[in-house]
Amino acid sequence: MASPAEIAAHFGIDPVRDVHIPDETVEGLPGLIIFEKGSRRILKSVTWGFPRVTREMRERGEDPGRVGMVADLTNPMWERIVVEPRYRCLIVLTHFANPDGNEGGKTRT
How far apart are CA 60 and CA 18, in angstroms? Predict the structure, then answer.
């Protein structure tokens, strides 16, 4: 796992001391992003994933869920977000996996 100083050096950002580097990046838990503000790149820990509320969730009074990746660009949820550079960032990670298999027995792929 890289240190905050190594991440800063790799991406050309100012070193950050008070950032927690998670072992995994999972929806609803902390994840690292790098975004640009002015002409500076900034490393930040954020709650991972886009908030998502379906009509059924609203009807049941449920809190928003989280979507961790843009998988279906035909979904109207992404129409504005994926085309506007102001919503883009670099995602800091070294490995990527998706669940695969039957419900209740999925493994990382």
Answer: 38
Q: CA 107, CA 102: separation in Å to the nearest integer?
A: 9
User: Which pLDDT band, with edges at 50, 70 and 90, does 101 fall under?
Assistant: confident
Quote the distance between the C-alpha of residue 94 and its chain's center.
13
Please state, in angstroms and as integers, the Cα–Cα distance from residue 4 to each residue in 1, 8, 72, following that order. 10, 6, 32
The first and second tokens of residue 108, run together, are: 């990382």
Instruction: Report the alpha-carbon distance of residue 103 to residue 46 in Å, rounded.
Output: 29
Question: Alpha-carbon torsion 16, 22, 25, 29, what sign?
Answer: negative
Q: Is the pLDDT of residue 65 over 90?
A: no
Place of tokens 């989280």: 66
How many Cα atoms within 13 Å fall on the side-chain side of residue 18? 0
For residue 103, give the DSSP letter: T
